[in-house]
Design goal:
Blueprint: H1 6-30, H2 42-62, E1 67-70, E2 74-76, E3 81-89, H3 91-96, E4 102-111, E5 114-124, E6 129-134, E7 139-144, E8 147-150, E9 163-165, H4 169-174, H5 178-187, E10 190-192, H6 196-205, E11 210-213, H7 218-230, E12 234-236, E13 249-252, H8 257-265
Helix pairs in contact: 1-2, 5-8, 6-7
Length: 267
Amino acid sequence: MVHDHLDDDLRFAHVLADSADAATMDRFKGLDRAVRARPDLAAVTDAENAVEKLVRGQLRRSRPRDAVLGAGDGLEGGGPRCWVVDAITGLENYVRGVPVWATQISLLEVSAGGYRPIVGVVSAPALARRWWAAKDHGAFTGRSLTSASRLRVSGVSHLTDASFAYSTVTAWEEDGRLNNFLALSRDVWRTRAYGEFWSYMMLAEGAIDSCADPRLSPGDMAANAVIVTEAGGTFTGFDGTPSPLSGCAVASNGLLHNELLEYLRRD
């Protein structure tokens, strides 16, 4: 449990996640998922924007001095603290009824070299799972702040024994790193496309050992970053910089990180 100034922020992040969960689940249950063709994401994007507006409204009332960054309305406000909201991570899953989607809420503060995440909550109500962390206080999963288990990354120390997760192959191809991805895939023990937040949460739980994505927004990364690092792992951009604003991410249990970066930096 957090016992300092982050306590209120972490508790408030859970309140925000509770509100988001109620809204996303209500819409999720009401979606028409009759499969006729490639799904139109317009309706689910409307749902995402509605949830973001809901969270922004709560932030304006309770944290009026803090900035807010979201996919829908961009950056609002300024100052040394910024809440980052990703209302629905995994829109394609959401629209097709796949339960692997989440709301990600994080709080960043200004530090040397830029912003650093200090609080993060990832809530996946269709999976009945939630994960959270506050800087220097550990990472947890459970039903509430008072009913939780501490997270810890794995101790796998060789890539040949490691499980590696990612989101889509096409993202690697579009980024010009397909050969890097394939080389890494051949040398690890196992690869799986769990995708987006799910890979990073399983890394924090110690179920997998590494993951990476070449294209991510701040909303995709900030909460994941603090949860992974507080679970004992390492979270950086492909250049090795520990920033949630790098546009890409590689995360590991820490023991594998330098090797992973070597693969991703190859020409």
